[in-house]
Amino acid sequence: MSAVLQSSSTATPALQARNVRKSFVSGRVESTVLHDLTLDVRAGELTLISGPSGCGKSTLLAILSGLQPADAGDVRALGHELSGLSMRALEHFRLQHTGFVFQGFNLFPALSALEQVELPLSYMGLAKGMARQRAIESLEEVGLGPRMQLRPAELSGGEKQRVAIARALAKQPELLFADEPTSALDAANGQIVIDILHRIARNHGTTVLCVSHDPRLVGHADRVLAMEDGRILSDHVPAASQVAASEAKEPSA
Ligand SMILES: Nc1ncnc2c1ncn2[C@@H]1O[C@H](COP(=O)(O)OP(=O)(O)OP(=O)(O)O)[C@@H](O)[C@H]1O
Question: Where is the ABC transporter domain (predicted)?
C-alpha cells in the first residue's frame, strides 16, 4: 500500500507526486526503486527526505524536478503536470523556476565564483549589469562577498558548496533541489550549508527539497519525510522547527 501524505495547509503544494513508480533494469533483472509513491511538498518550507543509501532518494528528487521521467504516476511542479511538457518546455521550466545543488558542487574549474553564478543568469536572458548585481547579492548572502573573485581550486569544500548555492539562489527560483548537499563536508560546514538552505526558504519563500542520508540535518528542516525501500515511512516536523515556528509567530513583548 502506498503512503499518502497530504499537506495540512489549504495552499496548493509546490510539488505533488501521485502513485509514482520507477524501476531500473540491469541485465535481466528489473528492480523497482519507487513503489507507487504519493506525497506533497509544501511551498516555502525546507523539506528533508532522509533515508539509507540506495532507498531511492536521488531518484525521487530527479523525478520531482523533471530531470527523469517516472514510469507511472503523476508529478506536478508549481501546478504544471511535468509529463505533459515537451522536452523543450521542460528545459525552459527548469531554467526559469528551479535551482539545483549537488553533492559534488559541479563548478567550472576555470571560472571565478562570480562568473559561476553569473553564467546561468546569462542563459536566462538577464542583461549583463542585472546579472552581475544579482550574482554579487547572492554571493554576499551566502557569506562569500570577499571571495567572489576566487576559482574553485582556491576555495574550501564548504565555500565551493556555498558558491553552488549562490548560483542556484541568484536565479530566484521557486523550487530549489539539493541532493546530498552536505555529504562531502565536515560537520561545521555541513551545518552552515543546511542553515543557509533553511534561511533561503524562510527569507525568500523558496520551496527547498533536500535529500540526504545525513542524520545531522534532521533537526534543521521544517519537515522530514523518512524513506525506506522506495516508500515514505513517516512524515514529521522536527521539535527544533516547531519551536522556531512558534517563536516566529509570537514575537516577545
Ligand atoms: N540509472 C540507473 N540505472 C540502474 N539503477 C539505478 C539507476 N539509478 C539509480 N539506480 C538504483 O536505484 C536505487 C536507488 O538509487 P538512488 O540513487 O535513488 O538512492 P539514494 O537513496 O539516493 O542513495 P544514496 O543515498 O546512496 O545516494 C539504487 O539501488 C541504485 O543502484
Answer: 15-253
Reduced to 3 states (helix: H, G, I; strand: E, B; else coil), residue 190 is helix
Q: Is the ipTM of this complex over 0.85?
A: yes
Mean pLDDT of the chain: 90
Strand 223-228, strand 231-236: pairing: antiparallel
Q: Which residue has the higher pLDDT, 200 or 217?
A: 200
What's the pTM value of the predicted model, to 2 decimals? Answer: 0.90
Maximal C-alpha separation, the chain: 66
Candidates 49, 50, 58: which one to mutate for ligand 1, based on the most atoms within 8 Å of Cβ? 58
The pLDDT value given to residue 244? 60
**249 Cα to the center of ligand 1, angstroms:** 40
- Is the domain 42-66+86-249 a CATH 3.40.50.450 member? no
Residue having the nearest C-alpha atom to atom 18 of ligand 1: 56
Domain extent listing, the chain: 42-66+86-249
Per-residue burial over 30-58, b = 16 or more CB atoms within 10 Å of its CB, e = otherwise: eeebbbbbbbbbbbbbbbbbbbeeebbbb
